[in-house]
Known about the structure:
There is one protein chain. This protein is mostly helical. The protein has 9 helices and no strands. Helix 2 packs antiparallel against helix 3 (58-79), helix 3 packs antiparallel against helix 5 (91-103) and helix 6 (118-146) runs antiparallel to helix 9 (229-253). The two termini are 33 Å apart.
Amino acid sequence: MDEGWMLRAALGSYAAAWLAPARWPRLVMLAAALALGLHTASLLLRWAAHGHGPFTTMHEILSSSLWSLALVLALAAAALSEARAAWRLAAPLLALLALWALVAPPGRGHFPPTYATALLYVHAVLGKLFLGLLLVAVALGSVPLARRTPIGARRFAAAPGDARFDELAHRFAAFAFVADTLMLIAGAVWAQDAWGRYWAWDPLETWAFATWLALAGALHARATLRPAPVVHGLWLAAIFALAFLTFFGVPFLSTSPHKGAI
């Protein structure tokens, strides 16, 4: 089975994991494990065929990001019962990435000489870890919102169990902030080594810094203002939307989001 068909088989297994009834947890876990295994093999085959990691084309970025997000969600669900209750809330986002990866051109991309460094992989892994941890935080923070009715102030009233999901969402957001900070530092060191500057305010750097500021603000507000769980969950969802645009909007709109990446 070649890389393309293996990816399609992985996406089918993801769909089975997302659609399987929650009362059959073993089937869900088996389908998720099969999907991750097939997807890993697909990425490794592409890596071996092209001689570099899946970081250059939109197809590669989407596929590798779907894999990393699914892996972080699966690990969180394996470790926490609350994450198992929340992970399905992330399924629409994963489905969007899967469909987008299917229609994105799968051809070979350009691998600039400045990308031939271990710092690229450190930077990329930290970025994917950041996005995965933030997605777990959003899924956990969305549980209080999913429980609400659309009637008046009840949308923002506390319900039993909300505090636990809110606290876990805050913790995962804090872990995501650490990964985001390290990603920016690794990227700056790589930029200095590759292009002779730490920062250039190019589109990707600007949006990444805006995301970092928004997440820092959310963590500070959670610690000082103590917003209601629903408000906190909505704030985290908005930050994830900003991060999503940073990761996938800028590369989609620009073939060279980094200055010097040629």
